[in-house]
């Protein structure tokens, strides 16, 4: 079983109001028997009546039922010697009531083997056990009855997987028959009435009064009493993972292997007489009460489903709990849910260089914008290429302009006649050096007046360290040069300033 079933049972609509005493799980679904010979079953979505008045239509009560190993045929028995079977595949009833002229009430029945080869034991209220065998289409072939003990009523029997028969009586005795005859195997000092017995590979379970279950371990030949509740436990069943028992006042107890006994919520207060386990677990009882359990819940903790299943869980998922797969690690305290493995993500983005991405007009996926560097680390354009604007140096000198002189200025500089550097010098200032030169040298020819040079468009700037000269090659006065440089830097002045005449006079007089 992959998951624990819930502890909540749901009441179902019953097709009868007769008390149902026993139930079995067939290959088609659950089947139950009860008062007035009624046989009900659930082969679809709803419960229905399969047999209305028993196998002999005499409305004798049916108190016990068992199913073949292949789940295709159920055998039932009851009061006044009523005995029969029902084939769930063919929906076919057969009547074998009053065998060997026995009309006593049958209390218990147990079936071994499959349909057509059944080996059956049926017990009456006098403590007698009657064996019979089915051979194909022939009716039951009866053997000699045997009384296992003193004659107490035998309310239940079962057949073990190895062919051993087991029976309990109302005096606290358990009997076994492995083919060599019945013998008592327990229970010592039980002092309880026994109501049902269940046998499988794991051992034997007996349901008793006052909420006690006895567990037998064949290898140790030992019985262990277990106190489950206070109500009488009328029936017991087991799966490889769980034990279920039903009893008075709507009581159902369950226990998963390695866990604890838990009382279920059954939605009924009727006494429950039988329980059957399968895909849908059912319990039946008084007044036709029927409850079912179908919901399932994942086990939460270790003790809920036992050491064996926990070990199997560890072995199954141990490979997912290693450090190489931490995404799928499963905590034993949590629900055992394993994450699906992660599929690798394919990178469809092509490797693109920056040059290719620039040509395509898009950025490559892994390109990152370079961090903006501090302005102090970058050299200015003026430092790299110079400036077109004039600026004063620290010593007050005017730096050379990076602009090339105009063609007119170059032509003027290359002419034979000297071009005065001071732009603010008047006509009298230009005539003064000529007259002075004639008075000092008699070898120079006397000139009436000096030819006036063409006015340049823009005078080339000279280095501040180079002294200016006049037309005769004599050095100029420093004050005159400074005034000329200041005038040359003023691009907006189109007229000669008045200060130029006083400067020229001062230079002439000095």
UniProtKB/TrEMBL annotation:
<protein>
    <submittedName>
        <fullName>Uncharacterized protein</fullName>
    </submittedName>
</protein>
<feature type="region of interest" description="Disordered">
    <location>
        <begin position="324"/>
        <end position="510"/>
    </location>
</feature>
<feature type="compositionally biased region" description="Polar residues">
    <location>
        <begin position="387"/>
        <end position="418"/>
    </location>
</feature>
<feature type="compositionally biased region" description="Acidic residues">
    <location>
        <begin position="488"/>
        <end position="510"/>
    </location>
</feature>
<feature type="compositionally biased region" description="Acidic residues">
    <location>
        <begin position="345"/>
        <end position="375"/>
    </location>
</feature>
<feature type="compositionally biased region" description="Low complexity">
    <location>
        <begin position="439"/>
        <end position="457"/>
    </location>
</feature>
């Amino acid at each position: 079983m992959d998951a624990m079933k819930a502890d909540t049972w749901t009441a179902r609509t019953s097709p009868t109001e007769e008390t149902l005493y026993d139930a079995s799980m067939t290959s088609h679904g659950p089947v139950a028997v009860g008062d007035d010979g009624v046989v009900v079953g659930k082969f679809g979505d709803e419960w229905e009546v399969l047999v209305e008045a028993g196998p002999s239509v005499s409305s004798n009560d049916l108190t016990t039922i068992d199913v073949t190993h292949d789940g295709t045929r159920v055998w039932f028995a009851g009061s006044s010697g009523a005995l029969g079977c029902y084939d769930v595949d063919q929906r076919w009833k057969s009547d074998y009531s009053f065998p060997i002229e026995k009309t006593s009430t049958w209390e218990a029945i147990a079936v071994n083997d499959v349909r057509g080869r059944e080996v059956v034991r049926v017990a009456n209220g006098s403590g007698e056990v009657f064996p019979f065998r089915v051979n194909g289409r022939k009716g039951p072939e009866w053997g000699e009855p045997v009384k296992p003990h003193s004659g107490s009523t035998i309310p239940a029997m079962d057949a073990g997987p190895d062919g051993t028969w087991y029976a309990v009586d109302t005096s606290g005795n358990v009997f076994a028959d492995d083919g060599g005859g019945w013998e008592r195997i327990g229970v010592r000092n039980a002092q309880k009435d026994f109501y049902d017995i269940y046998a499988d590979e794991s051992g034997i379970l007996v349901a008793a009064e006052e909420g006690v279950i006895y567990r037998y371990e064949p290898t140790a030949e030992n019985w262990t009493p277990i106190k489950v509740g206070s109500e009488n436990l009328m029936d017991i069943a087991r799966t490889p993972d769980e034990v279920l028992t039903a009893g008075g006042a709507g009581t159902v107890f369950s226990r998963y292997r390695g866990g604890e006994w838990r009382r279920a919520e059954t939605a009924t207060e009727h006494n429950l007489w039988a329980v059957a386990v399968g895909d849908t677990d059912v319990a039946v009882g008084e007044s036709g009460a029927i409850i079912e359990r179908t919901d399932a819940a994942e086990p939460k903790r270790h003790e809920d489903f036992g050491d064996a299943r926990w070990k199997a869980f560890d072995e199954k998922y141990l490979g997912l709990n290693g450090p190489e797969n931490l995404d799928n690690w499963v905590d034993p305290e949590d629900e055992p849910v394993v994450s699906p493995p992660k599929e690798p993500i394919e990178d469809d983005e092509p490797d693109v260089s920056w040059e290719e991405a620039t040509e395509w007009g898009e950025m490559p996926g892994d390109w990152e914008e370079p961090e903006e560097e501090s302005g102090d680390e970058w050299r200015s354009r003026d430092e790299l290429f110079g400036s077109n604007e004039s600026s004063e140096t620290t010593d007050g000198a005017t730096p050379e302009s990076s602009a090339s002189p105009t063609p007119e200025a170059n032509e003027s500089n290359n002419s034979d006649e000297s071009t005065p550097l001071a732009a603010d010098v008047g006509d009298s200032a230009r005539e003064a050096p000529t007259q002075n030169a004639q008075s000092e040298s008699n070898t120079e020819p006397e000139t009436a007046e000096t030819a006036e040079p063409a006015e340049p468009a823009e005078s080339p700037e000279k280095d501040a360290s180079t002294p200016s000269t006049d037309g005769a090659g004599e050095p100029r006065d420093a004050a005159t040069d400074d005034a000329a440089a200041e005038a040359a830097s003023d691009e907006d002045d189109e007229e000669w300033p008045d200060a130029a005449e006083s400067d020229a006079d001062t230079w002439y007089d000095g």
